[in-house]
Amino acid sequence: MTAGVGTALWAAPEVFMAKKYNDRADVYSLGVVLSELDTCAIPFADQAIGKNGKLDGMAVIKLVTQKRAKPTFSESCPAPVLELAMLCLDYEPGNRPSAADVVQLIQSRIKPALEAY
Fold first, then answer.
1. What is the C-alpha to C-alpha distance for residues 92 and 113, in angstroms, rounded to an integer?
2. What are phi and psi of 48, to 5 degrees?
C-alpha cells in the first residue's frame, strides 16, 4: 500500500480513513495474505459481506474501518502463523509489528514450527 497500489480487501483500515499511513499498512496486508494462504480463498470470502450474501468490497471497507471484520483462518492454521497474522491484522497501526519484527517472528517461531512439521 505504501507504493500506492492495492485492492480494498487487502488494504489496512487507515488507508480508507483519510489518515496518514506508513509501512504498517503493508504489515496489515501481510496478515491478509497469510489468511489467504491458510484458507486458499480470497479474504472475507466466507463472510458473505454485502448484498445478497455476495462479497462487496465497499461493505468490507466499511466493516474493517469500523473494526468489525477481519479475515478468517482455518482451524488447522498453525498456531505460530495465526499468532503472527493476528498481530499484523491489529486495527491500530502502532500495535502491529514492524517489518523487522515480522522477520524476527518468522525466524524464531514460524520457521522452527514448520521444520518440526
1. 28
2. 45, 50
What per-residue confidence (pLDDT) applies to 27? 98
- For residue range 3-35, what is the model confidence (pLDDT) as tens digits? 444 488 999 999 999 889 999 999 999 999 999
Query: Which domains are seen in the chain, by residue range?
Result: 8-116 (1.10.510.10)
Question: CB pairs under 8 A, 24+ apart, for 64-70?
Answer: 64/13, 64/16, 64/91, 65/13, 65/16, 65/17, 67/13, 67/91, 69/44
pLDDT at 50: 66
Regions in the chain scoring below 50 on pLDDT? 1, 3-6
How far is C-alpha 75 from the chain's CA centre? Answer: 17
Taking the mean position of all CA atoms in its chain, how far away is CA 69? 11
Taking the CB of residue 64, how many other CB atoms lie within 10 A of it?
A: 27
**Torsion angle of alpha carbons 21, 60, 37, 52, nearest 10°?**
-170
Locate 83 and state its grid cell: 499468532
